[in-house]
Structures
1.
Amino acid sequence: MSDHTLPHHDDKSGHLHVDIKAIDASVRLPVIILFGNAIHWLVIASLLSLIVSVKLIAPGFLGGVSFLTYGRLAPMARDLMLYGWASQAALGTGIWLMARLCGRPLGGEHSGGFGGELLRTLVISATVLWNLAVLLGTLAILAGYSSGVEWLEYPSWASAMLLLSFLLIGIWAVLLFDRRGTGRAVVAQWYLVAAFCWFPWVYGTANLLLVWKPIQASAQGPIQSWYCGSLLALWLLPVALASAYALLPRLLGSHLNRRNLATLSFWMLLLLGGWNGMDRLIGGPVPAWMTSAGVVAGVLFLIPVFMISMNLLGMDRKEAIVAGSISARFLLMGLYALICVGSIGALASLPSVSGAVRFTAFTEAKTQLWILGAISLPLFAVLYESFPQLLGRDCWSPVLTGRHYILTLVGIAMLISLLLLGGLFTGIALADPTVSFLNITSYSYPFHLMECVAQLLLLIAALILGANITRALAGDYLLNKQPRK
Amino acid sequence: MHRLTTLLSGIFLVFLTSWLGLVAYPALHLGRLTPVPDPDNGGSFPPTYGGQAIAGQRVYATEGCISCHSQQVRQSSVTTSDVDRGWGLRPSVARDYLRDSTAFLGSRRLGQDLSNVGVRRPDAKWHLIHLYHPSAVCEGSVMPCFSHLFLIRKIQGQPSDEALNLTGDDAPKEGYEVVPTAEAKNLVAYLLALRHDYPLPEAPVKKNGAAK
C-alpha cells in the first residue's frame, strides 16, 4: 500500500513524520459523505436532464402538471448538477487533497482527541446542511419559489444555508494549508486555496446583489454573467486542475517538466477566469467595452488553457500505465475536454460567430462541456483514486468502472457534438430573418431527438457509478460486520 | 509566495480586477441609471409597470420562462437579425430594465425573444389561449401548456366574460368553461407591458421603423 498512497507531499527535508493513515482516518467520513451524496444528486440530475430533453421533442410529455413543466425542471437539473454534484464533489476533493498535500490530519496533530472529534462532527453537520440546502432549494424550484435568476434559482434562505455550509467546510481546507507540515507549496495547493477563497466571494456577492437584496435590474446582467463565468472558471475548474496537478504526475510515474509554466498559467487563469462569463453578454444591453472585454477574455482564455495542457500532457507517459489507471484516463480526458472548452469558447466569443449562435444550443454545448467534461471527469478521477485509499482496500468493480468510463465519454461526446451541430444549424437559420421561427424549431427536432439518446447514456453511466459506489460502501459494511458473527 | 498571507493577497488582487469591472462598476454606474422624461405626456421612459404586471414578473420567474425566452435585442454591431426579425425597433440598453425586479436577459432562445412581445402581440385573449395551449394558436410550437394557470369550472348562470374562447379538442365539456387564474392574468399583464419601443438618448428609435 505504501507506493499507492497518492498524492503525498515531497518531503525532502526528511525531518517530518507524516502519518498517512492518521490523515486518511481524519477525513474519511466527510469525504465519503460528500462524494456519496454528490453521486446520488448526479443520478437525479441526469434523470431530470433526460426528462427535460424528452420534453423538447414531446412538449406534452408529463404535461399539464405545474411542477413538471420545462421551465421548472431545466433549472432544477442544472442546479443539481452544479451544487448537488460538482460543487459537493469538489468540496470532498478539496478536503482530501488538502489534507494529503499538507501532510496534516483534519483537526491538527491531536485529531484523535476531543477537539478532533468536535471538528469532524462540525464538518459532517455542515455536509448535512449542504445537502439539506440542495434538497430544499430544488423542492422550492419545483413548488414555484424560484428566484428566476439563472444558476441562482434557489430561494434566499436555501442559498444562505449553502453558503454557511460551505464556510464551515471550506475554512478547514484553508486552515490545513496554513498549518501544513511540508515546506514548499505545490501548484495543486495554490489552486485549492484560490478555489476555496473564491466560492464564498463569488456566491455571496452574486446572491447578495441578485437574490437577497436585488440591485436595480439595469445592473444585473453583467453581475449574472460574471457569476456564471466565475463559478465554473474560478471555483470548479481550479479544484479539477488541482486534482490533475496533484495526481497525474504520480499516476504516470513522471514529474512536471516546467514548474514556471504552472505558476504563470495559474495566475493567468485567475486573471482571466472572472471575465470568462462575459461572452454571455456580447451585443447585450451592457456598455460596449464589456462586449469587447468579453471577446478579448474569451480568446485570451485559450492561453492559460494551452499552457496548463502543455504542462500536464507534456509529461512522459507510458501507454501501459495510462491504460491501467482509470484515474489517469479520466484526468487526461478532462484535460482534452478543457482544451475543447477553451477552443469552443474562443470561437463563440468572436462577434460574428456569437451573433449567430449565442442563443442556440451552441452555448449550451459549451456549458455542458464545462460541467460534464472539464470539471466532472477530473472529479471522477479523484473519486476512483481516493476511495480505495480511504477504505483501505480495492473497492471498485473493474467491470462497472470500465463501463462507467466508456458510457460517460460516449455520452458526453455525443451530447456535445449534437448540441454544437444543432446550435450551428439553428444559428445560421436564426441569422436569416426570412426563415420563420417555427421553421427553425422544426430544424432542431432531429438534434433534440438524438440528444435524448445521449442523455440516456449519461443517465446509465451515472447509475452504473451509483451501483459501483454502493457496492464499494456496502462491501465495507459487510466486511466490518463479518468478524462479529 | 508560499506563505498563506502572500498567496491570499495575490489571489485577492487578481480576483479584484474582474470584481471591480463586472460587479462594482455595474453596481455603481448601471445601477444608478434613472428614467428619462417622456416629452409628450409627462411620463417617463421606461414607463412604470402596473400592479398586475409587477405581480406577473414573479410568475415569469417561478415558471422559469427564462429557460427558453430571452429579453434582449442585440446591438447591430454584433447582429442585425434581432431587429430584422421584428423582435424590436432598436437594440436593448441597460436603462430598459430599470423598472424590472430581475433582469430576465436569458441565454437561450428555444422560444422567441420577448423584449417587445407587448408590441408584437397586444391582444390579452391571444396570450391567454397561447398559455393554455400554445399549439392551438401557434402550430408546431414546442412550448409546454401552462394549463395549471387556468381553472376549468362549471358555468354558474351566465358564462364568465373571462372564459377562454376555445375550439376543437381544447374546448371544455358542455356546461363548463376555462377561466384564467390571477397568476395567468398577471403574467399576461406583464407580457403586454414588455415593450422597448420608446426612444432613449442612448437608443433612439428610427422614425420609419415599424414592428413586423
2.
Amino acid sequence: MKAAILLPVLADRDAVGNDVLAMAGLLRERGIDTRIFCDQALGVAEPTYPPNKALDFAGGPADLMLYEFSVGWPVALDILRRARGYRIVRYQNITPPEFFAGYSAAHVAACERGRAEIPQVARLDCELYLGGSTYNSEELIAAGAPRARSAVLAPFHRIDDLLTIEADLPLLDALGDGARNVLMVGRVAPNKGHLELVDTFAALVDGWGDPARLLIVGKSDPQLKGWTERIRARIDQHRLGARVRWLDSVSPAQLKSAYLASHAFLTMSRHEGFCVPVVEAMALGTPVVAYGSSALPETIGGGGIVWPEPDPWLHAASIARLASDEGFRNELRDAGRRRYQQAYSTHALRTRFHQVLEAVS
Amino acid sequence: MLVSTDSPDPWLERIKAEIRDEAAAARQRTPLPRIEPRVATTADPAPAGSGIEPARLDYVIADLTGADYGAFIDHAFRSLLKREPDPAGAGEHLRRLIEGAPKAEILGDLRWSGEGRRIGARVRGLLPRYLLAKFARVPVLGFVVDWGLALAGLPVLMRHQRAMDTVNAARFSDLRTLQRDCQTRFAGHEAAQQALASAQQALVAELQRGSAQFEQQLAQLQQRADALARTIEAEAQASTGELTQLRHEVHATHHWLASLQQALAALDEATAQAQAREDALAAAVGEDVAAQAQRSERQRAWSALLATRLGTGTRVLDLGSGAGTWLRALAAAGLVADGVEANAQLVARARQDGTTVALGAPLDALTRCADAGVAALTVSASLLDGREAVTRLLDEARRALAPGAWLLLRVEDEPQHYRVRLLDARSCAALLAAAGFVAAEVVAGHGGSAVLARQP
C-alpha cells in the first residue's frame, strides 16, 4: 500500500503543515510508503512532489489518498475523482468570507473559493471525512458528506516541543513585573474578535482596578492593515495604550514565556475550526477564559471557562475571579492540563489516528 | 463516530453563577481609578502600596504620635507632606528627637513648613502643643514657663514613673522567661544540628560508597564497550573482505555477460548471413524455357478458374508469392492481389519486374488478418514445410477467411527453390477437408496441381 497526502502549500510552523507532517510520519510508522504532494513547500526538510504525480504514485485500488482541505484547490478535486483507492478528506475549516469584507478583497475571494468547494468535496463520496472538530465535521455533513463515514480527529501540533524548550528568560522577567497579564494568541484577523478582547480588558481595568496588561501575540497581515488600525483605535478610545503589548512574530521560546507569565488566556474569537492556542494554554497551565463561538466550547471542554455570550463584563469578572481566588485558579489550571492529556496529547492523537487507520489497512 | 463535548461540572457551574453576579455588580458601579502596571508608571512619585494616602487631609494628633523614632518620622512625612522622607530631612529630625525635642514640635515644623502649608493637612490638637513647644524656646521666659509646667506636672510624672517601673519589671520578667526559652531551644537546636551532622556524615559515606560502585560499574561498562568496539571492528574488516570478493565476482559476472552478448550478436549475424545465402541459393535456382511456358499456362488457367469463382475485382491474399509470376496472373484475370514472400532476393526480383510483393513471413501476415477478414487466399504449397507449419496455416486460414471464401493451394512441379516439397495435391485436398473446408477439388495439368476448397 502507498499513501499520498495532498495540500496546496506545506509550510513549517504552520497548523496545517504540522498536521500533515505528523500524519505522514505515523503512516510511515505503519510501514506505508507515504509522500506529500503540493504546489509549494516553504522551509520544510521533507521532500515533496508535484500534485500531478500523485495518481501515478498512489492512485491504485489498494492505495490511500488523503487530502488536507483548508483552502480552495480544484487540483485536489480532480485527483480525488480519479483515485481508485481509499480516499480521506481531512477538513480544517475555512473562515467565512464575510469576516474579511471591507478589509481585504483578496481574503474575501480566497475564502469564497474555498467555501464553494465544500459541497463538491462533501459529495465526492469519499471513504472517510475526518474533521478537526465536531464543528468541522457537521459542516461537511450539512454539505452532503455521509454521517456514517465521518469522524473527528483533532489536529496534530507541536506542543510537546513547546513544553520541553527553555522559555525566553528576558521576556519572562519583563512580563513578571507584578502586573496581571491577560494573553491572546492568534493571527491578527477580523474573525479573531480583537475588538471584543480590548473591550473586555477595559472592563477588567475599570471594574476591578487591577494593574493589568493585555498581551496580543500573533502575526499581523499587511493586507488586513485596516483591521489592525481599528484595533489600535479601540485601544486608544479606552486610553489603554500603555497597558497593551503587541508581540507580532514570536519565537517558540517567546511564546512559551508569554503563556508562563500570563494569569489568564482570553479569546473572544468569533470563528474557530479548532483553536490550537487554547490547547497550548491548557498544556502550559494558563487558565482559559473564552467566548464559546464555533468550535471553541468543544475544544475547551471542561478545561476552562466558556461563556455563550461575548459580554465583556462576564469575561472580565472571570479573569478578576481567577486573580483573587487561588483555589479556583489552581482547579482551572489542573482541569486544563487534564483536558490536554486526555484529548490532545501526542499519545491521545496518535491512538485516535491509528483507530481511524484500522478501517484502511 | 463523532464525539460530544464534556458534560458541565457542577462545581464550575456554581463558580460561573457567582462570576455572573459579580459581573452584573461591576457593570453598575462607578469605574475604579486605573492602577497602571509598574513599567508604565515609573514617573509616578506615589507607587501603589507605599502607605501614602493622597486624599486624606484630616488627622488627630494621636494618629501621628503613636510611633517612635524612625517610624514616627517616616509616618509624619507620609501624612503631612504626602511623600517618603528624604534622607537629609529624616536625619535632621531624628537628631532633634534624640536631643529631646517634643514630637509636637517636629510635627508642627513639618505641618507649617512651606511644603506642608501647600498640602494643608489638618491635625487636630497639634497647634497649641506646637505653640507651647516653641514658646519654651524663648530665652528666660520660656525657661520659667517650662519649669512651671514641669513642676505642675510633677505628680503626674511621678505616677507615670511608677507605672513605667512596673511595666519595665514585667517586661524584664518576660525577657528572662524568653531568654530561658531561647536557651532551651538553642540546646535543642544544637542537638538537632549534631544529629544532622552525623546523618550528613553517614550520607556522605554512603554517597562515597555509591560513587565508588558507580565508578566500578562505569569501568566495567567501558571495558565491555571497548570489547564490543573491537568485535565490531573485526566484523567490519571481515565484511570488507567479503565485500571486496563480492565486488570481484560482480565484475567477473559483468565481463561474462558482456562476452555472452557479443557471442549472441555474432550468432545473430551468422544466422542472418546464412538466411541471406539460403535466399540467394533459392532465388538462383534456374528454370528452363519449357518449364516457364508450362507455369504460365497453368497459372493462367488457375487464375481464370479463381476469377470465375470469385468474380473480378475480388481482393486475394497470396502467401509465398516468389518472384510474383502468380500475382501477375491473378491481376491479368481481373483480381486484386496482395502478395507476401519471405525471400528478399525474390521480392527484389518481383519489384524489378514491376510487381509489388511485401517482404515478411507469410504465415505471420495471415495471423495479423482480422477474423473472417479475407475474401480469398492462395498459398504456395512450399510453405507447408512440416507438421507445425501445416497446422498453423490451416488454423489461421479457417479463422481469417470469410464464410464462403475460397482457398487455393498451388502444388507446382518445377523447382521454385531447392526445398523438398513434402505434400502432393491429393494429400493437400485431404488435409483441407480434414480441417473443415468443403468442396475440395484438384485441378491438375501443365506440370502442377491446384487444390481448391471453400470456407463453409
